[in-house]
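Reply to thread "Modeling small-molecule complexes from scratch"

Following up on the discussion above, here's a worked example others can learn from. I took a protein sequence and the SMILES for NAP and predicted the complex. Inputs first:
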Amino acid sequence: MKNIQVRLASRPSGWVSRDNFTITENEVAEPGPGQVLVRNLFMSVDPYMRGRMNDVQSYIPPFQIGEVLQAGVVGEVVASNYPGVAERDYVMGMLGWENFSISDGRLLRKLPRSSAPLSWHLGILGMPGMTAYVGLMKIAAVKPSDTVFVTAAAGAVGSVVGQLARIHGCRVAGTAGTERKVALLKKEFGYDAAFNYKSSGSLAASIKQVCPAGIDVLFENVGGEIFEAALWNMRDHGRIALCGMIADYNSEEPQPGPRGMMLMIGRRLTMRGFIVTDHPEACDEYVAKAIAWVAEGKLVYRETIAVGVENAPQAFIDMLRGGNTGKQIVRLS
Ligand SMILES: NC(=O)c1ccc[n+]([C@@H]2O[C@H](COP(=O)([O-])OP(=O)(O)OC[C@H]3O[C@@H](n4cnc5c(N)ncnc54)[C@H](OP(=O)(O)O)[C@@H]3O)[C@@H](O)[C@H]2O)c1
């Protein structure tokens, strides 16, 4: 059996390109004591991976040049030397951008045999869904009367945020980068109002139009100009859940912060950054609720699926440029 693997060839300066990756082919290794051999079925490409391509220490270590890149992966066990994990079990873990991975058994999570498609554990039932839940419920502590505004609203996290806000009785508005995504926000993802930030003219005026009474909760995924425009539309005592700043991830230099920070004082705003992995206690609670909401038809889920590990670099680049609707996944076998 051959193992096709994607390695980091060089660190990007500015936008990521295909040249930053190299594809190698090796024999599949045998699992050692305590290890498990996994056939990888689905992997996730996520915005945070762009940060890991830089040589900077963060909450997660950088990728190393020449090494196989890492991702959230769902796979099937081929061989196991770890008690409690057996051949044909479905597992999930931080594994490689590759067809087969060897993992310490203790680092894998066994997945239940359920009716949910396996790839959902990387999206709505996984990290992005959890991020939406933690940001909205724990960080911003939404209340039913709130107006919530979401940036990158049609992506993996944003598409869930809108629906959760709606389920919790909020009014919700958002923004995305194409007309098709804007239509989906309103038709499928529970948004009361939405606009295309690429064709809208004044961002502050467009936000005012979709949130005429102002924003109580800003769920910020983008940063940059749209964040600044949203800041000017915050209501007194508004809360900002700082989830991501994707507008900045491919900048060669960190961008200056938003103008208008005085508003934080005058309007008594609270702004809090968060990392979803700091909130493991919310996982079981969220997943149980999400399964019920899906069954009741209150929570819908979309994926954009690329096929083949050799196409993972392009899927990653496309996602950073807005090619995905909902969660970007790569199907590996
Ligand atoms: N704090 C945490 O623990 C945590 C966890 C997961 C994700 N995040 C963050 O949450 C955000 C969303 O992540 P995701 O996984 O759900 O990704 P995603 O939204 O599925 O994909 C990224 C989307 O960002 C939008 N985008 C890219 N550049 C943009 C720009 N300059 N201005 C506006 N929109 C832009 C694109 O959509 P358009 O077509 O609409 O432009 C693209 O589809 C990211 O910032 C990510 O880093 C944080």
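What I'd highlight from this example: The chain is about 25% helix and 30% strand. Residues 112 and 292 are 16 Å apart (CA to CA). Questions welcome below.
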